[in-house]
C-alpha cells in the first residue's frame, strides 16, 4: 500500500524534476546557470491559471484531446512498475493495456493536431506517427521476450530478471539501451526531436501543440513528462536488483529516474539533432536490440523455465 | 433452432412480399420485416450458444436428399455476428436507399435478403452440397448487390474480378471437399475426421480448403478482388460484405480445422505466416490509399490478418498442445470477428454517409466535415479508435486477448516456437500502430481541418435511419469495449470445442477475471478523463474564457484550405520507407525557374499482388491463348483438316494398339 | 398411335402451305405441331412406349430428348413469330421459315425416335438440309458464307460418320443389324477390331453435328448468322440430337468391352472443346458467337461426363438438359438484344439492365444458369462430374477441368457484365419490352431453377432413364 | 473382271491428282460412277431386286449422269476452266498421289492381316480415294473443286460399301441417295449464289467469319 501511495506521489513530482534536470544539464553544458530544477512545475501551475486561445477551425476533438491524453497517460503510468516493481494496478497483460493507453493518447494527440488544419501541425503529426511505427514493435518484441523467459504476463513479473547464464545481464543491457532510446524518442528529445528549436519546420512534438494554450498546454506538457518518466521506470525495473528492499527501492527509484534525465541532458548537450530522414535508421536500432534480446532468450531459455 | 428457422423464414417472406408493396413503403416494410427476422435468427443463435448444440434435418428431393442445419457453438457465434451485422446494415440501408427514389429496388431488396439468408445457411450447413449451394448463392447475391450502382467501367471490372475470384475460391473449396469425400465416402462434414488417418492427405486437403476460404476472407495474397469490389458496392453493402461476408471464409477455416482436429506444424505455420503478411501488408496498402472506401477495404485485409493470427496461433497451439494459445488465440480470433463486424460496418457506413453528402470518396477533396456532419464524424472517430485496437473500445479487447495468448503461450512453447510467437506479437504491434497511423489520417483529413472542396463544404449529416444503424453499431462497440467479459466467455465457449489439453473452463476463468479488471481500469481512465476535462473547462472559464482566433500559421495570416497537410503528405515519410515494398509509383514535375507556373506530384499505390501475380498470370494466359489463334482462321479447309488429323491420329493409335 | 401422326404431320402439313399462302395458316401449323409434339411426349410419359413399323420407337430411353424438343419448340415459336415480324419477312421467306422449321423439327424427332443407327444417320443428314435455309435467312454475305461452311463441314462430317457406320456394320456382319438394341445385346460378339476402327469415324462424324472439337468450327458461324430463335434450337437441340446417337454407340462400345478406348476419345474431344472455347470466349467480340463457343464448352463437358461414367453419367445428362434450357433462353434473349441495340457486337451493347429491365434480368439470370451458379442445375452437374473425377483419382483431369471452366467463365463474365452494366445509349431505350419477348425464356429459366433446387421426380426419372 | 474395274477406278483418281482441269475432274467422277454401276451389276445375284434397282439407279442416274452434268453446267457458267493456283505444285501432286496410294495400301495391308476376309484391292483403292478426296478438299482453292472432292469422297464411300457390305439393308443405301440429294439441293444452288455474291468463288474469300483469342 505504501509502495502504491509512493508511486502516485512520484508521478506528481518526478516528471517535472526530470524535465528540470535536463534543462539544467543543458544550461550548464552551455555555460549558463539555467532555470531552477522545478521550473517546469511552476510553468505548469502558471499555465493552469491562464485562459485559452482556440483556433476557429478546431472542433471538439481539439478540446477533449488534452484531457484525454493526460488521462490515458496517467492511467498507463498507474500500470507501470513503480517502487520495488510494485504496480499501482496489476493484472495479467497489464503491459498491453499500458502501451495501448499510450497509443490512445497518441491517437488523440495526432488528430488534435490535424484538427487545426495547419500544415505545420500536420507535418509534426506525420513524423510523430512514423516514429511510433518503428518504436511500437520493438516494445512488444521486448515485452514478448521477457514473457518468453519469465512465464508471466504482468509488468512486475516480466521485469524481474531471473534466469540462467548471462540472460539477466543481456536483458538488462539491451533493455536499458532500448528504453533509453525510446525515452529520448517519446520524450521528444535530441537526437530525434529538439524541443527548443526556433523553427516550426524542424519540430515534431512541439509543433503539434502549437495551438494549445492555457490548461490544455499544461496537460499536454505534463503528459509528455509522464511518458519520459514511464521509460525511466522501466529502466529502473530492469536494472535494480531483484531482491531490493522496499525502503531502498523508494530511495533508489527517483535517483535512477534523475540519472536517466541527467544522461538525456548530456546526450542533448553533446549530440546534434538528426536529419529527420535519418531518424528511422536510428529507431530501427531499437528493433535490432529487441531482436538480440529475443535471440538471447531463446538461447538461454533451456534452464530458465 | 425453431427460432432461428423462423427468422430465416421471416427474411424470406420479406424478400418476396416487398415486391407487392408500393414503392413508397417498400423499403420501410422490407427493413421492418427483415429486422424482425434477423432478431429472431439472432435470438435463436444466442439461445443455442447458451444451451448447447441443436440440429434439424430436412429431407429434400434429389440432388440434396438430406440437408442438416445445425447450430453448434461455432455456428451460433457466426450466426450472431451475421444477424447483428445484418441488422445494422438493414437499418442503415433503409436510409441509404432513400437516395435512389427512381429505382424500383425490387431486385436489390430480394438479393439483399437472400444474401443474408445464404450467409446464415453457410454457417449452419453440415453437408457438402448444401454448403456449396449456400456458399455460391452468397457469392451470387453479393455480386448482384455489388453492381447496384449505375455501372461505370470500374464497377464492371470489379464485378468481373470478384466473380472470377469467387469462382476460383469455389473451385478450390470444391476440390478440398471432394478430396475429403473421396476418403470418407460421405458428404457429411462430420465424416471428414476419418480422413485424418492419413495426415499428409489431410494436410493437402486442408491447405486447398484454406486457399479457397482465404480468397473469400481476403488474406494476402488472395485478396486482389477485395479492394476492388468493396468500393464498387453501395455502402450499405460494402459494410456487410466487409464486416460480415468475408467472415464466412474465416468460418470455413475454423470449421474444418475443428473437424479435422490437429493440424500439421507446416499448415499452422503457413496460416500464421499468411495472416501476419495480410495484417502488416494490408494496413500498409491501406495507408497508401486516397480513396476512403478502398482504404477501408484494405483494412479488412488487415483485420482478417489479425483474425488469422489468432487462428494460426490456435492451430500452432493445437499442434504443440499449448492451452493458452488454443483458448486465447481462438477466442481472440472469434472476438475480433465480432469486433471487426461492428467497427468495419460502422466505418463503411460512415464512409457511405460522407460519399452521399460530398459525392466523392477521394480523401484529398474532403476535410472539415466534423462541422457539417457532426454525428457522422463522431461515429467515424469512434470507429477509428476501435479499429486501431485502442482502449476503451472493442478492438482493444480482441487484440488484448491475442497478446495475452502470445505472452502466456510463448513460455510454454518449446524452442523456436516461442520465438515465432514473440515475433508474431511484434508483428501485431506493428499492425496496430500502422492502423493508428492510417486512421489518424482518415479522421484527420476527412473530418478535421477545413473543407478542401465545395462539395465537402456543403455536406450535411444523413437522415435518421442511417444514423440509427451506425449508432447501433457504436453502442455495441462501446459495450464490448467496456464490458468485455461476457463476450469473451462466449468466444471461449466456442474455443473450448477444440481438442484441448486440460479443462478449458478452468483456463478461461482467470482471463474473465482479468477482463473484469481491465474494464475497471478503463472505467477509472474514463472517470479520470471526465474529471480532467471538467477541471480544464472550469479553469478556462474561471481564467477568462476562450478567445477565438485563426490557427497559428507561424506568422502567416492567410492560410487557405489548400495549404493544409494532405493525406499523401501525411503518410509520405512512411511511404519513403516502404513505398518500394508497396509498389508505390510517384510522378513529380519539379518546380522550375524563379516563378514556377505549375508543378505536380502524384502517387499511385499499386498492389504488388496485382502487379506481380495477377497481371503476369493474366499475361501468361493471354500468351497461351494466343498460341491457339490459328484455330478459327475462317478457312474452311483448315477446319476439315482438324477432323482429318484427329481421325489419322486415332487410327494410328488404334494401329499401335492392335499390332 | 400418336407416333405415326407425329412423324407424318409435318410432312403433310408442309404441302398445303404452298397453296394456301396465308401467314396465319403457317403459324397455326407450327403451333399445332408444337402442341402435338408436347402432347405426344405427355402421352408416352403416361401410356408407356410405342413402336411404329419396327423402325421407330418412343420409350424411356429417348423420352427425355423428345421432351426437350417439345419444350424448346414451344419456347422458340413465340420468338420466331416475333423475329419474323421484326424482320418484315416476305411471304416467301415466311413460308420458307415455317416449312424449314417443320422439317427441322421433323428430322430431329425422327432422329431421336429412330431405333436404327442407319435411320438415325439419315435423319441427322436431314437436319442439315432443313436447317440450312435458316442460316441463310438474313441473306447477308456473311450468312452465305456461314451457310456454305455449315453445309459443307456437316456434309463431310456426315460422310465420315457414314464410313463409321459402314465399319460398324462390318463388325456386326452376320451377328446383328444396326438396331441399337440388337447392337447392345450382341455387343460381346461384335468384331472388336472393326468396332474400334469405326468409333473414331463416328466420333468425328457425329461429333461434327454435336459441336465438339475437332469438327466444331461451323458452330460459331452458323449460330451467329442464324435467326436467334433458330440458334436457340440449334444449340439447345440439334447438338443434343447428334449426341443422342453418339451416346448409343458409346453404349455399344461399353457393352463390347471397349469402354476404355471409347472414353479416351470422348475425353480428348471433351477437353479439346473446353480448351477451344476457353481460348475463343476470352476474345469474342460478337455475343452470339460467344454463346456458340459456350455451347462447344458445354458439349465438351457432357462428353467428359459420359467418358467418366459412374455418377458423372447422370450429371452429363442433367448438364445436357440444363444447357439446352439455359442456352436456348440466352439465344432468344440475345435476339431481343440484337434487335434493341441493332448490333451483335459485345462492345456495342451497354446498360442492358437500364435499357430493358426484363431482358437485362434474363441475360443476367441466364448467365448465372450457364455459369454453373446455384440454384441452377449446371452447378449440380459440374459438382457431380468433379466428384467422379476425384473418386476415380484423376486429379490432373480435375485441375484441367476446373481451370478451363474458370477461364471460360472469365471470358463470359467480362462480356456479360460489360453488356449488362453501364449506361445505355438513348436509342436502345425507345420501345418498352412486350411480355412475349421475355415470357418464354423466363419460363425456361424458372423450370431450370426448380430442377436445381428440388428436382421433380419426373425429371429425375427422365434424365436417369435417358442415361441407361 | 471386277478387279480390273477397281483398278480403273484407282487410275482415275491418280489422274485426278495430276490434273487441274475442271472438266477432267467431272469426267473422272462420271467414270467412277459408271464403274460403281458395273460393280453393282456384277453383284446382281447377291441382291434382292429392290436394292439392286435402287443402287443401280443411284450409281447410273445420279453418279454417272446427273451430278456430272450439273457440275459441267456450273463450270460452263462460271468460266472456271481450271484450278489456277493449287496450293501444291503439279509435280508435288504426283508425288503426293503416289504416296497416298502407298499409304492406302499400307492401311489395307494392316487391316487385312487382322481381318483376312477383307478384299484388299477395293478396300485399298477406296481408302486411297478417300485420302485423295480429302487432299483435294484441303488443298484446292476453288469452291467447285472442293465440291468435286466431296463427290469423290462419296464415290470412295460407295466403292467401300459395294466391296464390303453390299448385302446390308436398304437404309444404308438410302443414305447414299440422301448425300446426292444434299449435293443437288445445296451445293449447286449455293455455288450459283456464292458466285454472284463473291466475284471469284475461292475459299480464301470466305474467311470473314473468324475469331481471335
User: What oligomeric state do these chains adopt?
Assistant: heterotetramer
Kindly state the mean pLDDT of chain B as a whole number?
A: 91
Give start-end ranges of low-pLDDT stretches of chain B: none
Which structural class do you get from the secondary structure elements of chain B? Answer: mainly alpha
Question: Helical region count of chain A?
Answer: 11
pLDDT < 50 runs, ≥5 residues of chain A = none
- Main sheet specs of chain B: 2 strands, antiparallel
Count structural domains of chain A.
1
Order of helices and strands of chain A: HHEHHHHHHHHH
Number of DSSP-assigned strands of chain A: 1
* Rg over C-alpha atoms of chain B, rounded to the nearest angstrom: 27 Å
Extended strand count of chain B: 5
The most extensive interface between chains reads: A-B, 92 and 92 residues
- Overall structural class of chain A, as computed from helix and strand content, comes to mainly alpha
| Cα end-to-end separation of chain A | 31 Å
What can you tell me about this protein's structure?
With 305 residues, chain A is mainly α. Chain A has helices at residues 2-29, 39-48, 60-79, 94-115, 119-150, 155-158, 167-186, 205-208, 214-239, 246-270, 279-304, and one strand at residues 52-55. Chain A has one domain. Chain A contains eleven helices and one strand. Among the domains of chain B are: 1-145; 608-658, no CATH class. In chain B, 72% of the residues lie in helices and 4% in strands. In chain B, the strands form two sheets. Chain B has a two-stranded antiparallel sheet. Chain B is globular, with a radius of gyration of 27 Å. Chain D has 213 residues and is mainly α. In chain D, 77% of the residues lie in helices and 0% in strands. Chain D has helices spanning 2-18, 22-42, 49-78, 90-114, 120-139, 143-164, 170-197. The longest helix of chain D is centred in the first third of the chain and has 30 residues, at 49-78. Chain D is globular. Strand 1 (52-55) of chain A pairs parallel with strand 3 (546-549) of chain B.
Task: Provide a brief overview of the structure.
The complex is a heterotetramer of chains A (305), B (659), C (468) and D (213). By secondary structure, chain C is mostly helical.
Please tag this protein with its features.
heterotetramer, A: 305 residues, mainly alpha, 11 helices, globular, B: 659 residues, 24 helices, 5 strands
Q: How is the topology of this model organized?
A:
The complex is a heterotetramer of chains A (305), B (659), C (468) and D (213).
Chain A (H helix, E strand, L loop, with lengths): L1 H28 L9 H10 L3 E4 L4 H20 L14 H22 L3 H32 L4 H4 L8 H20 L18 H4 L5 H26 L6 H25 L8 H26 L1
Helix pairs in contact in A: 1-9, 1-10, 2-9, 3-4, 3-9, 4-5, 5-7, 5-11, 7-9, 7-11, 9-10
Chain B lengths: L1 H16 L5 H29 L2 E6 L6 E6 L1 H24 L9 H17 L5 H19 L6 H32 L14 H19 L8 H7 L2 H11 L1 H14 L4 H24 L3 H29 L2 H36 L10 H4 L1 H14 L6 H16 L6 H32 L6 H4 L6 H19 L2 H11 L8 H39 L3 E4 L17 H16 L2 E5 L10 E5 L3 H19 L9 H23 L1
Helix pairs in contact in B: 1-2, 1-4, 2-3, 3-9, 3-13, 3-19, 4-5, 5-6, 5-9, 6-7, 6-8, 7-10, 8-9, 8-12, 9-13, 10-12, 11-12, 11-17, 11-22, 12-13, 12-16, 12-17, 13-15, 13-16, 13-19, 13-20, 15-17, 15-19, 16-17, 16-19, 20-21
Chain D lengths: L1 H17 L3 H21 L6 H30 L11 H25 L5 H20 L3 H22 L5 H28 L16
Amino acid at each position: 500500500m505504501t509502495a502504491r501511495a509512493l508511486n502516485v506521489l512520484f508521478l506528481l513530482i518526478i516528471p517535472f524534476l526530470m524535465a528540470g534536470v535536463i534543462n539544467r544539464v543543458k544550461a550548464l553544458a552551455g555555460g549558463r546557470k539555467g532555470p531552477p530544477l522545478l521550473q517546469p512545475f511552476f510553468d505548469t501551475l502558471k499555465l493552469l491559471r491562464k485562459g485559452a486561445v482556440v483556433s476557429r477551425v478546431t472542433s471538439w476533438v481539439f478540446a477533449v484531446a488534452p484531457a484525454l491524453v493526460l488521462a490515458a497517460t496517467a492511467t498507463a503510468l498507474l500500470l507501470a512498475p513503480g517502487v520495488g516493481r510494485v504496480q499501482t494496478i496489476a493484472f495479467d497483460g497489464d503491459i498491453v493495456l499500458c502501451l495501448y493507453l499510450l497509443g490512445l493518447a497518441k491517437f488523440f494527440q495526432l488528430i488534435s493536431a490535424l484538427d487545426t488544419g495547419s500544415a505545420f501541425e500536420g507535418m509534426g503529426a506525420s513524423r510523430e506517427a512514423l516514429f511510433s511505427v518503428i518504436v511500437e514493435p520493438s516494445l512488444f518484441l521486448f515485452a514478448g521476450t521477457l514473457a518468453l523467459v519469465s512465464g508471466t504476463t504482468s509488468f512486475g513479473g516480466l521485469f524481474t530478471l531471473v534466469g540462467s547464464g548471462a540472460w539477466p545481464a543481456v536483458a538488462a543491457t539491451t533493455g536499458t539501451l532500448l528504453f533509453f532510446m525510446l525515452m529520448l524518442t517519446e520524450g521528444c528529445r535530441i537526437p530525434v526531436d529538439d524541443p527548443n528549436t526556433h523553427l516550426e519546420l524542424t519540430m515534431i512534438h512541439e509543433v503539434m501543440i502549437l495551438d494549445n494554450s492555457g490548461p490544455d498546454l499544461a496537460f499536454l506538457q505534463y503528459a509528455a513528462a509522464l511518458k519520459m518518466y514511464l521509460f525511466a521506470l522501466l529502466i529502473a525495473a530492469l536494472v535494480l536488483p531483484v531482491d531490493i528492499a522496499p525502503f531502498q527501492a523508494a530511495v533508489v527509484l527517483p535517483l535512477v529516474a534523475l540519472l536517466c534525465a541527467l544522461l538525456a541532458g548530456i546526450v542533448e548537450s553533446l549530440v546534434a539533432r538528426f536529419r529527420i530522414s535519418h531518424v528511422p535508421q536510428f529507431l530501427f536500432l531499437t528493433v535490432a536490440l529487441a531482436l538480440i534480446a529475443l535471440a538471447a532468450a531463446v538461447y538461454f531459455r533451456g534452464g530458465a523455465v | 433452432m425453431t427460432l432461428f428457422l423462423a427468422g430465416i423464414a421471416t427474411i424470406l417472406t420479406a424478400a418476396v412480399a416487398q415486391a407487392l408493396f408500393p414503392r413508397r413503403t417498400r423499403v420501410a416494410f422490407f427493413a421492418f420485416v427483415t429486422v424482425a427476422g434477423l432478431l429472431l435468427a439472432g435470438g435463436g443463435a444466442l439461445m443455442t450458444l447458451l444451451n448447447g448444440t441443436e440440429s434439424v434435418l430436412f429431407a429434400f428431393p434429389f440432388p440434396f436428399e438430406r440437408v442438416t442445419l445445425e447450430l453448434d457453438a461455432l455456428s451460433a457465434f457466426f450466426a450472431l455476428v451475421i444477424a447483428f451485422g445484418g441488422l445494422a446494415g438493414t437499418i442503415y440501408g433503409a436510409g441509404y436507399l432513400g437516395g435512389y427514389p427512381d429505382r424500383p429496388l425490387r431486385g436489390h431488396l430480394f438479393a439483399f435478403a437472400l444474401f443474408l439468408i445464404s450467409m446464415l445457411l453457410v454457417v449452419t450447413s453440415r453437408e457438402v452440397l448444401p454448403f456449396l449451394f449456400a456458399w455460391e448463392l452468397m457469392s451470387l447475391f453479393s455480386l448482384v448487390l455489388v453492381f447496384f450502382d449505375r455501372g461505370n467501367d470500374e464497377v464492371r471490372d470489379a464485378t468481373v474480378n470478384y466473380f472470377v475470384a469467387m469462382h476460383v475460391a469455389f473451385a478450390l473449396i470444391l476440390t478440398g471437399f471432394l478430396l475429403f469425400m473421396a476418403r470418407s465416402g460421405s458428404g457429411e462434414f462430420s465424416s471428414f475426421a476419418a480422413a485424418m488417418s492419413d495426415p499428409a492427405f489431410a494436410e493437402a486437403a486442408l491447405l486447398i480448403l484454406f486457399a479457397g476460404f482465404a480468397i473469400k476472407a481476403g488474406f494476402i495474397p488472395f485478396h486482389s478482388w477485395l479492394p476492388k469490389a468493396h468500393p464498387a458496392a453501395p455502402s450499405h453493402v460494402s459494410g456487410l460484405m466487409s464486416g460480415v461476408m468475408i467472415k464466412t471464409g474465416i468460418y470455413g477455416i475454423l470449421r474444418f480445422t475443428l473437424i479435422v482436429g490437429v493440424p500439421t506444424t507446416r499448415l499452422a505455420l503457413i496460416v500464421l505466416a499468411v495472416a501476419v503478411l495480410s495484417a502488416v501488408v494490408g494496413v500498409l496498402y491501406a495507408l497508401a490509399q486516397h480513396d476512403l472506401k478502398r482504404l477501408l477495404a484494405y483494412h479488412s485485409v488487415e483485420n482478417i490478418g489479425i483474425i488469422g493470427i489468432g487462428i494460426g496461433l490456435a492451430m500452432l497451439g493445437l499442434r504443440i498442445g499449448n492451452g493458452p494459445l488454443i483458448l486465447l488465440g481462438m477466442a481472440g480470433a472469434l472476438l475480433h470477428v465480432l469486433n471487426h463486424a461492428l467497427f468495419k460496418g460502422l466505418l463503411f457506413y460512415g464512409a457511405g454517409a460522407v460519399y452521399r453528402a460530398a459525392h466523392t470518396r477521394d480523401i484529398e477533396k474532403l476535410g472539415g466535415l466534423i462541422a457539417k456532419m457532426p454525428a457522422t464524424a463522431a461515429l467515424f472517430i469512434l470507429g477509428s479508435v476501435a479499429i486501431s485496437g485502442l482502449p476503451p473500445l472493442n478492438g482493444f479487447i480482441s487484440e488484448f486477448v491475442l497478446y495475452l495468448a502470445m505472452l502466456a503461450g510463448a513460455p510454454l512453447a518449446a524452442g523456436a516456437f516461442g520465438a515465432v510467437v514473440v515475433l508474431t506479437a511484434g508483428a501485431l504491434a506493428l499492425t496496430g500502430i500502422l492502423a493508428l497511423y492510417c486512421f489518424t489520417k482518415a479522421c484527420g483529413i476527412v473530418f478535421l481541418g477545413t473543407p478542401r472542396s465545395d462539395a465537402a463544404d456543403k455536406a450535411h449529416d444523413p437522415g435518421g435511419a442511417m444514423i440509427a444503424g451506425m449508432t447501433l453499431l457504436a453502442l455495441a462497440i462501446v459495450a464490448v469495449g467496456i464490458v468485455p467479459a461476457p463476450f469473451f466467455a462466449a468466444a471461449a465457449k466456442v474455443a473450448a470445442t477444440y481438442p484441448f489439453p486440460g479443462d478449458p473452463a478452468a483456463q478461461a476463468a482467470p482471463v474473465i477475471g482479468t477482463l473484469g479488471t481491465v474494464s475497471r481500469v478503463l472505467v477509472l481512465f474514463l472517470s479520470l478523463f471526465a474529471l480532467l476535462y471538467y477541471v480544464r473547462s472550469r479553469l478556462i472559464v474561471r481564467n477568462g474564457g476562450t478567445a477565438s482566433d485563426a490557427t497559428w500559421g507561424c506568422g502567416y495570416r492567410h492560410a487557405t484550405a489548400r495549404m493544409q497537410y494532405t493525406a499523401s503528405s501525411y503518410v509520405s515519410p512512411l511511404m519513403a520507407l516502404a513505398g518500394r515494398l508497396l509498389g508505390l509509383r510517384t510522378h513529380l514535375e519539379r518546380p522550375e525557374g524563379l516563378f514556377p507556373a505549375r508543378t505536380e506530384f502524384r502517387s499511385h499505390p499499386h498492389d504488388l499482388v496485382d502487379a506481380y501475380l495477377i497481371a503476369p498470370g493474366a499475361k501468361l494466359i493471354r500468351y497461351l491463348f494466343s498460341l491457339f489463334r490459328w484455330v478459327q482462321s475462317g478457312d474452311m479447309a483448315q477446319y476439315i483438316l482438324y477432323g482429318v488429323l484427329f481421325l489419322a491420329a486415332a487410327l494410328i493409335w488404334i494401329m499401335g494398339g492392335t499390332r | 398411335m400418336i407416333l405415326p401422326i407425329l412423324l407424318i404431320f409435318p410432312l403433310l402439313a408442309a404441302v398445303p402451305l404452298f397453296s394456301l399462302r396465308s401467314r396465319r395458316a403457317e403459324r397455326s401449323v407450327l403451333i399445332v405441331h408444337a402442341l402435338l409434339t408436347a402432347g405426344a411426349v405427355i402421352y408416352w410419359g403416361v401410356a408407356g412406349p410405342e413402336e411404329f413399323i419396327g423402325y421407330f420407337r418412343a420409350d424411356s430411353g429417348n423420352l427425355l430428348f423428345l421432351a426437350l424438343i417439345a419444350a424448346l419448340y414451344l419456347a422458340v415459336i413465340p420468338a420466331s413469330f416475333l423475329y419474323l415480324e421484326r424482320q418484315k419477312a416476305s411471304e416467301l421467306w415466311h413460308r420458307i421459315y415455317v416449312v424449314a422449321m417443320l422439317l427441322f423439327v421433323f428430322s430431329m424427332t425422327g432422329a431421336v425416335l429412330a431405333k436404327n443407327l442407319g435411320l438415325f444417320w439419315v435423319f441427322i443428314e436431314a437436319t442439315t438440309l432443313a436447317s440450312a435455309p435458316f442460316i441463310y435467312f438474313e441473306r447477308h454475305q456473311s450468312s452465305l458464307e456461314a451457310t456454305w461452311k455449315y453445309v459443307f463441314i456437316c456434309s463431310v462430317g456426315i460422310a465420315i460418320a457414314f464410313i463409321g457406320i459402314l465399319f460398324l456394320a462390318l463388325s456386326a456382319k452376320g451377328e446383328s443389324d444396326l438396331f441399337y438394341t440388337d447392337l447392345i445385346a450382341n455387343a460381346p460378339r461384335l468384331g472388336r477390331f472393326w468396332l474400334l476402327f469405326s468409333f473414331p469415324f463416328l466420333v468425328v462424324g457425329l461429333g461434327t453435328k454435336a459441336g465438339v472439337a475437332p469438327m466444331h468450327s461451323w458452330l460459331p458461324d452458323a449460330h451467329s448468322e442464324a435467326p436467334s430463335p433458330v440458334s436457340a434450337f440449334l444449340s439447345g437441340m440439334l447438338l443434343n440430337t447428334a449426341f443422342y446417337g453418339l451416346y448409343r454407340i458409346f453404349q455399344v462400345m461399353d457393352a463390347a468391352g471397349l469402354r476404355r478406348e471409347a472414353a479416351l476419345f470422348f475425353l480428348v474431344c471433351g477437353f479439346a472443346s473446353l480448351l477451344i472455347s476457353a481460348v475463343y470466349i476470352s476474345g469474342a467480340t460478337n455475343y452470339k458467337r460467344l454463346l456458340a463457343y459456350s455451347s462447344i464448352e458445354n458439349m465438351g463437358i457432357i462428353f467428359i461426363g459420359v467418358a467418366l461414367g459412374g455418377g458423372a453419367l447422370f450429371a452429363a445428362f442433367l448438364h445436357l438438359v440444363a444447357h439446352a434450357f439455359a442456352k436456348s433462353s440466352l439465344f432468344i434473349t440475345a435476339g431481343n438484344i440484337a434487335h434493341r441495340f441493332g448490333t451483335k457486337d459485345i462492345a456495342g451493347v451497354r446498360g442492358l439492365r437500364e435499357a430493358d429491365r426484363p431482358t437485362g434480368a434474363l441475360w443476367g439470370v441466364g448467365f448465372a444458369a450457364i455459369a454453373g451458379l446455384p440454384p441452377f442445375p449446371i452447378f449440380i452437374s459440374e459438382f457431380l462430374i468433379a466428384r467422379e473425377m476425384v473418386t476415380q483419382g484423376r486429379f490432373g483431369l480435375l485441375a484441367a477441368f476446373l481451370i478451363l471452366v474458370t477461364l471460360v467463365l472469365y471470358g463470359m463474365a467480362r462480356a456479360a457484365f460489360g453488356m449488362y452494366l453501364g449506361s445505355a445509349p438513348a436509342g436502345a431505350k425507345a420501345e418498352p419490352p412486350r411480355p412475349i419477348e421475355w415470357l418464354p425464356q423466363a419460363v425456361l429459366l424458372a423450370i431450370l431453377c426448380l430442377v436445381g433446387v428440388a428436382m421433380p421426380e419426373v425429371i429425375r426419372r427422365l434424365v436417369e432413364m435417358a442415361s441407361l | 473382271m471386277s478387279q480390273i474395274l477397281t483398278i480403273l477406278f484407282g487410275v482415275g483418281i491418280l489422274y485426278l491428282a495430276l490434273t487441274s482441269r475442271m472438266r477432267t475432274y467431272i469426267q473422272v467422277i462420271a467414270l467412277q460412277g459408271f464403274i460403281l454401276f458395273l460393280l453393282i451389276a456384277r453383284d446382281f445375284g447377291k441382291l434382292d431386286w429392290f436394292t439392286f434397282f435402287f443402287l443401280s439407279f443411284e450409281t447410273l442416274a445420279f453418279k454417272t449422269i446427273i451430278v456430272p452434268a450439273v457440275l459441267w453446267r456450273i463450270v460452263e457458267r462460271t468460266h472456271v476452266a481450271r484450278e489456277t493456283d493449287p496450293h501444291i505444285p503439279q509435280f508435288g501432286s504426283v508425288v503426293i498421289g503416289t504416296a497416298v496410294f502407298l499409304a492406302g495400301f499400307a492401311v489395307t495391308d494392316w487391316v487385312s492381316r487382322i481381318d483376312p476376309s477383307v478384299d484388299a484391292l477395293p478396300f485399298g483403292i477406296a481408302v486411297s480415294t478417300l485420302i485423295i478426296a480429302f487432299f483435294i478438299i484441303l488443298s484446292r482453292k476453288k469452291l467447285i473443286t472442293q465440291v468435286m472432292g466431296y463427290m469423290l469422297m462419296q464415290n470412295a464411300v460407295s466403292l467401300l460399301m459395294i466391296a464390303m457390305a453390299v448385302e446390308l439393308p436398304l437404309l444404308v443405301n438410302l443414305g447414299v441417295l440422301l448425300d446426292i440429294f444434299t449435293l443437288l439441293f445445296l451445293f449447286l444452288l449455293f455455288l450459283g449464289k456464292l458466285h454472284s455474291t463473291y466475284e471469284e468463288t475461292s475459299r480464301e474469300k470466305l474467311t470473314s467469319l473468324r475469331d481471335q483469342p
